[in-house]
Amino acid sequence: MSASTTAPSQADVPETPVVKPSSRARRAGRELLGSAPIFLILLVVLVAIAVRNPQGASPEYYLALLKRAAPLMLLAAGQIFVIVSGEFDLSVGALITAVVVGAAVITDGDPSLSYPAIGGLLVAGVAVGAINGVATTRLRVPSFLVTLGMALVISGGVLYNTGGAPSGTLPQNLRFFGREGIEGVPVIGELPYSVIVLVVLGSVCFWLMHRTNFGRQIFAVGGNARAAALSGTRVHAVKTLAFVISAVSAVVAGILVAGFGGLSNDAGAGYEFQAISAVVLGGAVLGGGRGSVLTAMAGALTLEALFTLLNLLRLPVELRFTVQGVIIIAAVAYASVRLRASA
Amino acid sequence: MTTPANTLRRFAGTGRGLVADSSALVFVVLGLLVAGSWALVGPSFLSYENILSIVQRSVALGIVAAGQTIVILVGSLDLSVAYLVSVTAVIASAIMQGDPALMLPAVAVCLAIGVIVGLTNGLIITKLRVNAFIATLGVALILRGVLNASVDNFTGSVPIEFQALAYASLGPVPYSIMLLAGVFAAGWFLLRYTRLGHHIYAVGGDEETARLSGIRSHRIIITSHVIVSLTAVLTGLFIVSRLRAGAPWVGPDGAYDLESIAAVVVGGTALAGGRGGVLGTLAGVFILALLDNVFNQLQVNPFIKDIVRGVIIVGAVAIYALGSRRRDG
Amino acid sequence: MTEQQLPGDPPEPATSAGPPLLEVTGISKSFFGVTVLADVDLDVRAGEVHAVLGENGAGKSTLMKVVAGAHQPDAGTIRLGGEEVTFSHPRDAQLKGVSIIYQEFNLLPDRTVAQNIFLGREPVRAGVVDSRRMEADTRRLLATLGASNIPPDRLVRELSVAQQQTVEISKALSYEARVLVMDEPTAALSPHETEALFERVRRLQEQGLGILYISHRLKEIFELAQRVTVLKDGRRVGTVEASAVTTRELVRMMVGRDLAHYYPPHASPDELGEVRLRVRGGGVPALLHDIDLEVRAGEIVGVAGLAGSGRTELAQALFGVRPFGSGRVEVDGRAVDLRTPRAALRQRMGFVTEDRKAEGLVLPLAVRDNGLLALRALGRWLSGRLPGGPLRVTDLMKRVDLRAASLDQEVRYLSGGNQQKVVLAKWLATNASILIFDEPTRGIDVGAKAGIHELMRELARAGAAILMISSELPEVIGMSDRMLVMRGGTVAGRLPADPTEDRIMLLATGERDLGEAA
After folding, report:
1. Which of B78, B187, B258, C223 is the most interior residue, by most CB within 10 Å?
2. CB of B15 less than 8 A from some CB of C
3. pLDDT at residue C49 above 80?
């Protein structure tokens, strides 16, 4: 134990008689940007891309990047709910694969079945999230195990259904979301629907997390679940809804992936780790209590941009995994060390 | 209070019996499963060939599960084992290139890599204070990237002499089974009879209490991670001897990360650490291999197996968590 | 001065001549600018039981931790057998012969008795841990304590609390402790087990050990101790011979009314309103029984009692944390079932807990978010609106006179007093009008305490019904309009405003004879 008496104590902080309210603008700014340097990192990476590829760096190019990153950004926007509440959701990759394969099987190329299929898949997503939530809160199994187990169950189910080779085809109007866009837009040419979906759902997630009572309770649950419970929060329900949000965002991401990726057994492979890397890169603290939807999405975009940069630098595409591994460890270590320093 | 485990413990002579440190429950389950399988499949189930097949299937998973037991006992976890298995298989095969003279150097290099990976995991967890799940996941991803960027198919080859490990026998006993038995005997001995073993239980039980008694908990944790990485290397060597050449997918294909954790948990070792043992894990490994075997015999769709695996893992942890919650009051 | 002769007088101590076994002088210690110990002297002789007495927050634990090497003193010296020493780590102290047994034992529940005792120094033969020798040595150790009925190969989790304590004592002895520090050793023991412990302590005395014994229980202190040192507010008030002091004198030393600290005036009868909270026959299995109480609007009902008497359990039962299993609870005359904190919250109740950092606040969150914590829990999930209309957090914080740099400051950086104000604000935000306080000013410096007391009285005057648990006698006497004294899980007695410490202690300890009644 320390023998120090020189730690800056609260007694030393000049006490102003009454609380100074900080302006709404300043608060909003802080919320938007967090105290995370992710936006700076994003800028650096985007600039580096332009430097590396001066001819190709047009607005269309960056838009294509955004389009590619949309599923991951959506996933991050959902995953952050789970991570802020103090848990992990590793089932999202398997969910994406299930959505891609499942949509093909259900519709089998018939456009009139697209919307019902999407509806059904969303319901399935809610069910998956609910099971994840209940198993974590009631069965007291660590969430990483529950969701890994769920991923196994889902992928097993999918492969069982397709016998190992995906069958059916994806109808055009389903692939529409991931592939098409509004033509004739000035400057950028085409505004992809996936970007529109991203903005709309990203806003919904932002609103949920930062503007509702539910969102505030997630921060409380992640920061100190016991204090939250003693203050009347229904901790189990809050965590379960977080899992549902994560699963639903995975379903939507899956539909986008179905759009530009096409049908494959591996459609969603690795997305869960990318989502966690993105959220952590954006500055969320694992084990809960801190984070922001915007920084999570910025982290996802940065990750995708980083991958693009690596491509431009002619590094083998498989090294993406290594990059993620380093990012995850570094980001968590950084947060952990900072936490200790301020304690 | 009386639980089946305690009763068995008392019967076996508390603290001295063979199974004193593991959950007795898992052996009961194993017995029931054997009986049930025999009923379902028929007398061929208990034939020598079938039992041998089950045990052979257990060797690869078993070795790494023994290591995973140790690292979970100390209160940590290792998700990087699957890719370390792949890395070992590929590197061993690439170095040996079918030349028996290169067997020893190849093994030495692989063991060295195992030590490095184990040290890395242990240091990240203890010095950088990153939780075990993230740290070992990160290392797994790092290994995966480097591995997949380097090779994408079978590489090199393994000399016949080395393949003996998987295929040959000493009299009636295959070398593979001797290896499995040896690893578990070593693990059991380590945990029961060495200071390191006692300290592993202590650090896993309550790190602060252990430190108050002068135990250097960080060293124990790092050592445990080196041990599990070495067992992953052994598994990799065994697999490459069986496959005759190394490929990058052997680790993840066998789901060695998740399955080893499953075997440990089913075997009665608490995820929180401080309680359990390797013999329970061995039973857990047999249970998983047995289920595999039965499913094959009954021609159950292989993908159903995945579903069952997922449910078993979560179910096992939940059951034990509920059990310990009741006990702790 | 009348001599108190109580049953079970300790035998004449065979204290040795020469330097004391352990002597600390001038010990001072502060944490984050708050002084916890100031210039404390203490010594233990061989063969002596030296009791250390004091209220919560008096500094007993910190002093013991310094003695045992868990804290480094800011000033002062420690002498062992006359020679100056420093302890760098508890193990260091242990190896030099000073062992401490904490109230929460430091044992590994899933390891055997022998394995626990020899943790970190397992005997080895031919490179292998020698379990046989470990168990034989353990058997011998246990025998010297008269505890041969504890098998060395039994798992610690299978032992009773008393047996676990014996294991802890054996562990200390195995380090050849010369000085043993025991922190509230009888807190979890039955009377029978307590007697057995006393026997053991006496045996240890005969072997020449010096024992530092922290306890609230005056009866035990008189039974066991030769000398008693009383601590108050981090200072040593005095050291006396146990055979030459009365209970009343000890209590006065512990509590001693500080004339400079004024409490706000009590409520007068016409300021009291309806009964807001009533409990009849309340019970929680194994913890509380036959609880009857009422709290009116406008009054502060104090709850006094020793550690373990059931005070916190009462608060927890009222707030749905560990709900009543039997009996009837009424809020405003209607029977209610307070099954969860949320149910209590709905009844306009609030609970300022003992441990604000672990249970009252979410430390990484801002003042604003902590203040609105309970209100948001009641709000509709998919809405940003607060139930009951918009609330200006600034005004809320003004009500509790919070001093902080801004509403967005993380509460972890606030002082204890300000943190407590945020917790209170949280309940005020939900218009809670039945408030339960458990140790409202624990860990708060003297200046801020008065502020909290003022606040509480203001709230009562505005109509709140307040139940206040406190182990600080001046506080509970100064604040209460009426008082309940708990003992053994039930209400042992009820007292009007301004009772004497004697009356309270009499009820709290169940002692018949405290000398002259005031």
Report:
1. B78
2. yes
3. yes
Nearest residue to C202 (alpha-carbon basis) of C359, C48, C393: C48
Beta partners for C316? none
pLDDT in tens, B41-70: 777 777 877 887 788 779 999 999 999 999
Residues on chain C touching A3 (C-beta within 8 angstroms): 71-74
Count, residues in chain B:
329
* Residues of chain B found within 8 Å of residue C129, distances taken between Cβ atoms: 192-195, 197-198
C-alpha distance from C377 to closest chain A C-alpha (Å): 5
Using CA of residue A324, residue A300, residue A188, residue A263, what is the dihedral sign? positive
**Digit-coded pLDDT (tens) for B163-213:** 888 888 888 888 888 999 999 999 999 999 999 999 999 999 999 899 988
Q: What is the pLDDT of residues A274-330, one digit of tens each?
A: 999 999 888 776 666 678 899 999 999 999 999 988 888 888 888 889 999 998 999
**Which of A142, A149, A321 is facing B148, going by the closest CB pair?**
A321
Where are any strands of DSSP class E within C102-209?
124-125, 128-129, 179-183
Q: Which residue has the tokens 């600080």?
A: C472
Domains of chain C: 1-6+21-97+178-185+205-256 (3.40.50.300), 105-176 (no CATH), 291-509 (3.40.50.300)
Q: How many CA atoms lie within 13 A of A333 on its CB side?
A: 16
Contact A150, B310 (CB under 8 A): yes
A112 contact partners, CB below 8 Å, separation of at least 6: none
Are the CB atoms for C227 and C48 separated by under 8 Å?
Answer: yes
**Is the CB of residue B14 less than 8 Å away from at least one CB of chain C?**
yes
**Nearest CA distance, C149 vs chain A (angstrom):** 37
Q: C308 or B8: whose pLDDT is higher?
A: C308
**B11, B208, B213: best mutation site toward chain C, by most C Cβ within 10 Å?**
B213
- CB contact under 8 Å between B202 and C128, yes or no, is no
CB distance from B35 to chain A under 8 Å?
no
> How many whole angstroms separate alpha carbon B145 and alpha carbon B96?
23
Question: B213 contacts in C (CB within 8 Å)?
Answer: 91, 119-121
> Is B23 or A177 the better-scoring residue by pLDDT?
A177
List all residues 6 or more positions away from C31 whose beta carbon is below 8 Å from its beta carbon: none
Q: Across residues B110-122, what is the average pLDDT? A: 97
Q: What residue segments make up the domains of chain A, in order of their start? A: 65-269+284-290
Question: Which of C373, C385, C407 faces A22 most closely, judged by CB atoms?
Answer: C407
Q: Which residues have a Cβ under 8 Å from the Cβ of B189 and sit 6 or more positions away?
A: none
pTM, two decimal places: 0.83
Structural domains in chain B plus CATH codes: 56-328 (1.10.3470)
C-alpha to C-alpha distance for B211 and A231, rounded to whole angstroms:
36
How far does C407 lie from chain B, in Å, by closest CA?
Answer: 31
Query: Which chains touch B (3+ CB pairs under 8 A)?
Result: A, C
pLDDT by residue (tens digit) across C152-206?
999 998 998 889 999 998 998 888 889 999 988 887 777 788 888 998 899 899 9
DSSP C50: E
Q: Round to whole Å and give the CA distance between C66 and C479.
A: 34
Interface residue A310 vs chain C (CB under 8 A): no
B-chain residues near A324 (CB < 8 A):
138, 141, 145
Residues of C in contact with B324 (CB under 8 A): none
Distance from CA of A16 to the nearest CA of B (A): 37
Q: Do the Cβ atoms of C439 and C312 come closer than 8 Å?
A: no
| pLDDT tens string C393-407 | 999 998 898 888 889
Shortest distance between the Cα of A233 and any Cα of chain B, in A, equals 23
Q: What is the pLDDT of residues A260-280, one digit of tens each?
A: 777 777 788 889 999 999 998
How far apart, in whole angstroms, are the C-alpha atoms of residue B36 and residue B33?
Answer: 5
